Amino acid sequence: MSSVRGRALITGGAGFIGSHLSEALLAQGWQVTIIDNLSTGRYENIQHLSSEPHFKAVIDTITHEVVLDRLAGECDVIFHLAAAVGVELIVRDPVRVIETNVLGTHAVLQAAARYRKKVLLASTSEVYGKSNKVPFGEDDDRVLGPTTKARWSYSDSKAVDEFLGLAYHRQTGLPVVVFRLFNTIGPRQTGQYGMVVPRFVRQALSGGPITVYGDGSQSRCFCNVQDTVRALLQLVETPEAVGRVFNVGTVEEVTVLELAQRVWTGVESCAPTVKMPEPAGRMVFIPYDQAYEPGFEDMQRRVPDISRIKRLTGWEPRIPLQQTLEQVILDMLSRSATA
Ligand code: UDP
Predict the structure, then answer these.
(1) How many CA atoms lie within 13 A of 24 on its CB side?
(2) Coil, strand, or helix at residue 146?
(3) Among 256, 262, 299, which is best to mutate for testing ligand 1, by the most ligand atoms less than 8 A from CB?
(4) Which terminal Cβ of the chain has fewer Cβ within 10 Å, N or C?
(5) Res. 2 pLDDT band, cuts 50 70 90
(6) What's the rounded Cα separation, in Å, for the pair 285 and 211?
(7) Could you give the angle at which helices 151-172 and 94-115 cross, rounded to 10 degrees?
(8) Which H or E element spans position 202?
């Protein structure tokens, strides 16, 4: 007789969010298997879990049908996080983004349907596109740019994932829950695919300047990954969540300019050995078409309405931004010390 709480399969489990989810599920007594092709995930993210008796890592792609079929058969619930993400990656390699997101999710849902396993499907606030509504509610309209702008392919690829997940639920009764992640940050996130917080922290730790795109007046709400993961743990245990879509994010909003200033404040207090540059050397402004591609369209604001998940599960984020920034700074310092 096994005493585990449940058996979770996490696709993309060696990624930033997947690795934190693995830890949290293990701590709650789950058995965890991850599958990751290490395309954007990193083995270092999960190495510390490899000796856990209830943890198993499979390094393979989710479109490898034989492998996925076996793993789907052996679990109780699938957290489908494997996806190509990051605005920079989308602009640089749209073929990979579209194929990974659409074909990967198709493969996961097919395998889940074969064994009738619950799926928690990760989506993104990018699905709202450039709508300027504040805040975004789950049933709001999507406003997108033309197909000639690569950025929108990410939004559409994840929207197809949502459509497919919800269609499986409606047509076959497969238990599917969709969660839309807003900007999520924390230790282990890499700036390699454009994410602003790890980029700013790395830039500040190496003495600056921080690269602010546009005029920095655009704003975002950055949720600590530990809060995000707690939301997923609550959604998976809530039967009424099935067949529905949930925003997961914080409502603490900052402009990118203010974020840059807060990163410097965090570095000043957490990394006193870093020599602070003169104020003029702390930031540099880079036009969008240089940072991404000509004609690049950014979202000015992106704030989630989190009343749906709060009403259903009681979840709300707890960790303030400055505390998260300090965690990220300390994590990056400890990595560079061991590198
Ligand atoms: N950004 C920036 N400098 C960077 C990277 C990103 O000013 O070096 C900006 C980016 O243009 C956007 C915000 O930070 O307005 C958040 O970017 P990220 O790629 O992290 O997330 P998303 O655009 O998906 O919200």
Answers:
(1) 20
(2) coil
(3) 256
(4) N
(5) low
(6) 6
(7) 10
(8) helix 196-205
